[in-house]
Design brief:
Length: about 425
C-alpha cells in the first residue's frame, strides 16, 4: 500500500512592513510629535528655573510636580483608559496640553514666571500625557498584526529616543533664543498631534469582554494589579526598573549641575542630550537582535550589571567628553531594556487589560520618580557631585546583585520558558 505524502504547507506570507501601515504611521507620527513637545518643555522647565535661580532644589520642585502624576494618576488613569474611547481620550489630552502649556508660554512672554504656576502646569501636562500614552500604547495592537508587534514596540521606543534627540536640544536652543519659545513649540506640537489622530481610520480598541457591564473603578484597578502580579517574570523586572529609575532622576539633574560647574552652557547640555538620545535610539533599534539572541531574562541581568559598571565612574571622570560617553552608553543599554520590558507586557496582556496593565507597570517603575527628583535636588545642593554620584554607584551595584540573584537561577529560567 502506497501512502501519498501530503503536500508541504505553503510558506506564510511575509509580514506587511510597518511603513505601509497607514494608521500605524499616523498614530506613530502623532505620538512622536507630541513627545517632541513634551521633551522640549521638560528641559525648558529645568533651564528656565535653574539658570534663573541657580538652585537645584527649585528646579527639582518643578520636576517633582511633573513626575508626581506617575505616582498619583497611573492606576485610575489605566482603568479609565480601558473604559473610554481611546481616540477621544487622546484627542482630549492633546487639546488639554495645548491650553495648559500655552498659559506658560504667555506668562513667560509677559515676564511673569511663578514657580507654583509652573508646578501646576507641569502636573496637568504630565497627567494628560499619562492618559495619552496609555491609550496610544494600548491602541498599537489594533493597528498592527501579531507578527508586527515586536517591530512596532521597537519603533515606539526608537520614536521616544528620536524625540529626545530633537526635542531636548530644540528646547535648549529655543530657550537661548527666548525663554517662552520651548513652550510655544510644545503648543504647536500637541496641536499637530491632535490633527493626525483625526485621520486614523481603524478602531483603536476591540469590543469589551462584558458589553453593557460597568463596574466601579476599584475592582477594575484590582484586576490590572492581579494580572501584573501573576506574571512572575514581569514582576521581578519591574522591581529592578523601579529602583534604577530613581537613580536616573539623580543622574539627569546631576548632568546639568556638572556641566554648569564645569563652565558649560545650556548648549553643552543640549549637545550631551542629543548624544544620549542618539545612543538610546541605537539601543532600541538593535533591541530585537538582543531579544532573539539572549531572551528577556539575560537582558535584565546584563542591563543592570552594565549600568552598575558605568555608573561607578561618573563622579570621577576627567572632563565633559568622557562624562558624555558614559551617559551615552547608559542610555544605549536603557533603550534595549525598555523595549524588552514593553514587548513582554504588550505580548502577554489581553486587549481589555492593556490600559490597566500599562498603568500598573508605569506606576511601579516610575511612581517614585517624583521622590527621586526631590532626592536629586537635596543631594546635589547639600553634598558635592562626586559624593552624590558615589551614592548612586553603590545603590546601583546593589540593584545589579539583585538582578543576578533574581534572574540567574533555574526557577527564573523555567518561568521564562513557561512565559510567566
Amino acid at each position: 500500500m502506497t501512502v501519498l505524502a501530503s503536500p508541504a504547507p505553503a510558506p506564510a506570507p511575509p509580514a506587511r512592513p510597518l511603513s505601509r501601515s497607514r494608521d500605524f504611521l499616523l498614530l506613530w507620527i502623532g505620538a512622536g510629535v507630541s513627545a517632541l513637545g513634551s521633551r522640549a518643555t521638560s528641559i525648558g522647565y529645568t533651564l528656565l528655573v535653574y539658570w534663573s535661580t541657580g538652585s537645584a532644589t527649585a528646579a527639582s520642585l518643578v520636576t517633582f510636580a511633573a513626575l508626581l502624576p506617575n505616582l498619583l494618576v497611573q492606576m485610575p488613569a489605566g482603568a479609565l483608559v480601558d473604559r473610554w474611547d481611546r481616540r477621544r481620550t487622546m484627542l482630549a489630552c492633546s487639546a488639554g496640553r495645548v491650553f495648559a502649556i500655552g498659559s506658560v508660554a504667555v506668562a513667560v512672554m509677559l515676564g511673569e514666571v511663578w514657580i507654583p504656576h509652573l508646578m501646576a502646569v507641569a502636573f496637568v501636562e504630565a497627567t494628560l500625557g499619562i492618559c495619552y500614552g496609555l491609550a496610544e500604547r494600548a491602541a498599537v495592537c489594533n493597528v498592527v498584526g501579531p507578527d508586527q508587534l515586536g517591530s512596532a514596540m521597537a519603533a515606539n521606543e526608537s520614536r521616544a529616543n528620536a524625540a529626545g534627540i530633537v526635542g531636548q536640544p530644540a528646547g535648549t536652543l529655543l530657550h537661548s533664543l527666548a525663554r517662552f519659545a520651548p513652550f510655544a513649540f510644545a503648543v504647536v506640537a500637541h496641536a499637530v498631534s491632535f490633527v493626525t489622530l483625526l485621520f486614523v481610520r481603524r478602531d483603536l480598541q476591540g469590543p469589551p469582554p462584558d458589553p453593557g457591564r460597568r463596574r466601579s473603578l476599584l475592582p477594575e484597578i484590582r484586576e490590572g494589579l492581579a494580572f501584573v502580579w501573576g506574571q512572575v517574570y514581569l514582576r521581578r523586572a519591574l522591581a529592578l526598573f523601579a529602583a534604577s529609575n530613581i537613580l536616573f532622576q539623580v543622574l539627569g539633574l546631576g548632568l546639568i549641575v556638572m556641566v554648569k560647574e564645569g563652565g558649560g552652557s545650556p548648549h553643552t547640555v543640549g549637545l550631551l542630550l542629543v548624544v544620549n538620545s542618539a545612543f538610546g535610539l541605537a539601543g532600541a533599534m538593535t533591541s530585537n537582535l538582543y531579544l532573539s539572541r539572549f531572551g528577556i531574562r539575560r537582558i535584565m541581568m546584563g542591563v543592570n550589571v552594565a549600568w552598575a559598571v558605568l555608573m561607578a565612574g561618573i563622579g570621577f571622570v576627567p572632563g565633559i567628553v568622557v562624562l558624555g560617553a558614559l551617559y551615552a552608553l547608559i542610555n544605549y543599554i536603557a533603550g534595549i531594556g525598555n523595549v524588552a520590558g514593553m514587548y513582554y507586557l504588550v505580548k502577554t496582556a489581553p486587549d481589555h487589560l492593556r490600559g490597566r496593565a500599562g498603568s500598573v507597570v508605569t506606576l511601579l517603575t516610575s511612581g517614585a520618580n517624583s521622590l527621586g527628583a526631590l532626592l536629586a535636588g537635596f543631594l546635589l545642593d547639600s553634598t558635592s557631585t562626586t559624593a552624590t554620584m558615589s551614592i548612586v554607584a553603590v545603590v546601583m551595584a546593589g540593584i545589579a546583585v539583585s538582578a543576578v540573584l533574581g534572574f540567574g537561577g533555574r526557577a527564573a529560567a523555567e518561568a521564562e520558558r513557561a512565559g510567566s
